[in-house]
Amino acid sequence: MFIINCPYCGERDQSEFTAGGEAHIERPKQPTELSDDEWAEFLFMRKNIKGVQFERWNHAHGCRKWFNVVRDTTNDKIHAVYKMGEKPSID
Amino acid sequence: MPNYRVKKTDYVDQTNRISFKFDGKTYFGFKGDTLASALLSNGIHLVGRSFKYHRPRGIMTCGSEEPNAICQINPGTDLTEPNVRATEIELYEGLEASSQNCWPNVNFDIGGINNFISPFIPAGFYYKTFMWPKSFWKNIYEPLIRKSAGLGKSPTLPDPDLYDHKHIHCDILVIGGGISGIIAAKIAAKSGSNTILIDDKNTLGGSTIFQNNENFKINDEISKDWLFKEIEELKKLKNLTIKTRTSVAAYHSYNYLLAKENLTDHLSKNNKTSNIRQRLWKIRSNKVIIASGAIERPLVFNNNDRPGIILASSVNKYLNFYGVICGENNFVFTNNDSAYETALSLFEKGIQIKIIDIRKKTNSKIVKRVEKLGIDIYWNSTVTNTFGYRKLNSIEIMNLSEDGSNVIGKKIKAKCDCLAVSGGWTPMVHMHTQSGGKLNFRESDQVFLPKELDSEHISVGSCNGDFELDDIIKNTNEKVKSLLNLKETEFEKTYVSCTKELDKRNIWLLPNKITLGKTKSFIDFQNDSTAKDIKLALREGFRSIEHVKRYTTTGMATDQGKLSNMHALGIISETAGVKMGTLGTTTFRPPFTPLTFGAIVGRNVGQFFDITRRTSIHEWHIKNNAKFENVGQWKRPWYYPKENENMHQAVQRESKAARDSAGILDASTLGKIDIQGSDASEFLNRVYTNAWSKLAIGKCRYGLMLNEDGMVYDDGVTTRLGDNHFLMTTTTGGAANVLSKLEDYLQTEWPELDVFLTSVTDQYSTVSICGPNSKKILIKLFPSVNFNDDDFTHMSFKNSTINNINCRIMRISFTGELSYEINIEAKYGKSLWEKCIEAGKDFNITPYGTETMHLLRAEKGFIIVGQDTDGTMTPIDLQMDWIVSKKKYDFIGKRSLYRSDTIREDRKQLVGLLTEDPKEILEEGAQIVSNISKKPVEMLGHVTSSYFSPNLNKSIALAVVRNGKKMKGQKLLVPMENKNINVIVSDSIFLDKENKRLNA
Ligand SMILES: [Zn+2]
Predict the structure, then answer these.
(1) Mean pLDDT of all residues in B667-673
(2) Which domain holds residue B928?
(3) Size of interface A-B (CB pairs under 8 A)
(4) What is the pLDDT of residues B842-897, one digit of tens each?
(5) Contact B544/B117 with Cβ under 8 angstroms?
(6) How far is CA B829 from CA B127, B154, B199, B852, B987, in A?
(7) pTM for the predicted model, two decimal places
(8) Residues, Cβ < 5 Å to ion ligand 1
(9) Is B556 a member of any domain?
(10) What is the CATH number of the domain that holds A78?
(11) Pairwise CA distance, residues B435 & B347, whole Å
């Protein structure tokens, strides 16, 4: 069980958070303009990386804020935490 | 009976005699004994039967790695516990234990016959044999196997004990209180770190506290005396917490560890000092120092499992710690120097001891000393067989060939009732690997060692591969120093004199004149797998260690292969010609030793198992005989039986009353979300399928929410309270998920919207009154409100007060009847409800529960999200096209409604079903087919809701059926176990299609 540094609250136990999958997948602004394949790309396709992955987390049992986490899925090391709309401090 | 207690020690109080029972017979031991040492002092070796062959087995170790001596504690009581290791049970007055895996008893065991048919039970036997015929598995094989193969018996009575969970934070956690752990803890605590030292035994000191010979000295003192003083000093340190009888069960990432502390397991019933039996510590430590030690390896030779064959270090501990000898004619059988300490200890007590060493000859200090004392050593020799059924009585010794692959020369047979075996040492790397650490392989002594990559934790002492006393002290000091960034410590100049091992010889499977197929060379003692089984698995093509392990069940018993894994690997490596380092190990999974369920759940049992949510009206429901249904965490009234009514009768009565006069429902559990902000209506436009911008203040609207994949997610009525203020209701079960989904969109996709969401589910109680007389009741309750239909229209709301308390009245309906919903601050919920009941008395107002509510809305064909939908239904599938706005540019899920898959016409669609026999009620979940004779029978769909409607006097059902929209009037079949029920596809609205009742 890891520790997540919520950008609004600070370090809290993982049990306070829920995971929200891959980050930086923006909902298309004009879905009606998209082909089935393009829409499916947004709707279904996720990278599921073994290694460093950008993901969304929600401080569900805390401030309820969504934010981004850069996590290595092989060892759960967290390399960066940053707010929605911001750029990570690494890479 | 001879007494095997030959020596006084510091750790067993021989003035404090304790009686205990084993297999029904009373024995005596002393305070400080374990069940194992007490049994051995009584000459009891045979304590169990092996799993597969039911071979007699004896105590083999003195710790958590014990494979054989596993017992049932307090059998037949509510305190009983199976699979407990006798080597870990501290003796107390009145302890009762029994052996397992044997019937009728350990001395005469019927399953022992497996031993004689064992050539027919090779590895994979169960997989291969019991596969066929299929029907035999359930009725014959499984019950038989379970009966003969079960380990202990699970308790059948509720556990009377209490268990605790506690969180603790520290700078440094030291796992293991042996010499390296003690040094590490002392350095850490003295440097100012808040330190915790954990050990699973009741005393600190590991194996050094009984290392009592001249060959091992620290600062010119005998090692045990030096360590004893260190422990005394350690206990005085302020920022150090010492936890004994505590074992680390799991090491998770970010230095989060679980450790189980035994508080009362070592005390007799009358002396329990705490009413908490075990405490699970949840530890978060900045750094962790692992000092978990090493386990001695057995040797693999023919019949190496007889009672009396014990690890050499354990024989030494039984003598020097407990004062007990394990036999009178002792042999040490070793491939390394460490067992020579055992020989010396026995010799000093005048016990007969000889040594068999597979090495050719070695000249270390300790070997020379043993030779000088005149102890016989059989060099370059191996044991080729052992004899004695219930207890070892003799052994057979032969010389090894030059390369060790064969035996040569004459057999020597010798009297022997205790064979102390040592195959070297295996560092306990479990904690390191559990934390995610990788391993290196050291060829010289064939051990896997921690490969340290980060600074989160280090391993010190023998778990790090340091087996010599001087290395242990020097390296522990250096590693802890660098972990804590210290310049120097008090252990800098500790002077150690010890004997250094010069020579090692490792033979994983010792040779024999007999062919392998006819030998019983055990690798995994608890699961009875032998060298032969491993070789068979390799011959059959298994290569991966994980596969061999599962095929032969090696390492899969309750000891998780603590003694067997290395030998299995070694034999695979030799046979397959692959280097051990590249073979890798199997995964070590938590818990390190078994945990009780009690410790895992702690106080979260009974009413604390899960949160229970009750409405403010709950007490009234109980008083009025409500039966409850769980809806999420909520307790909702299900139905209110009167006198002898069964559920069906109660629901029929309630349903009829609601349509004939008036019904009342506690709707407080529906999710309520308060939505405010200047973009609130735009927000609703985006999350619901229908249009919201034009909803006037004071009006309500039903909305359907989809997932982005187009599937129905939730529904409910939302009321516009003000220009920028809405109150949304959600389904009871979906409330929390809807709120977080909406928050997600607001925060991540549409941060530009000025909208704020607040859950107010718990803040309001909701009372819903429906039926043709509902208006009359409302008029009585709110005389000042105008309830005229043209003033207070369907789907609108008014603010009012009752006894000066504010409330909101919504005219909305989920039964199809004229219906009002009153929202009031939760604390007034019960008194409002009571007022409604009072006001409705003249109109036979009838409280109804969820079952009637479901029936009433089914009559109207209203869907219940989660019952009639299952995450695969679009609004179009539900024939709710009317609610999907064609004009709106976008809303959640819109694009998905015309994906190639969602526009298919033969999707499952919601329809009504009427049974040919109107009395026949379909079963919810039943399959629907059209043609039963064509095999395989094609499943068209299933029944989602089914009731007998008292208002229509016939059975009705909702169902999802492939292409159902086009099947109206068509006959289908619902095949049941004993009959096929004829049904006709119908409209899903059964009652009042014109919605006249809304304005009754
Ligand atoms: Zn937070």
Answers:
(1) 97
(2) 905-986
(3) 54
(4) 999 999 999 999 999 999 999 999 999 999 999 999 999 999 999 999 999 999 99
(5) no
(6) 62, 47, 55, 21, 38
(7) 0.89
(8) A 6, 8-9, 59, 62-63
(9) yes
(10) 3.30.2270.10
(11) 43
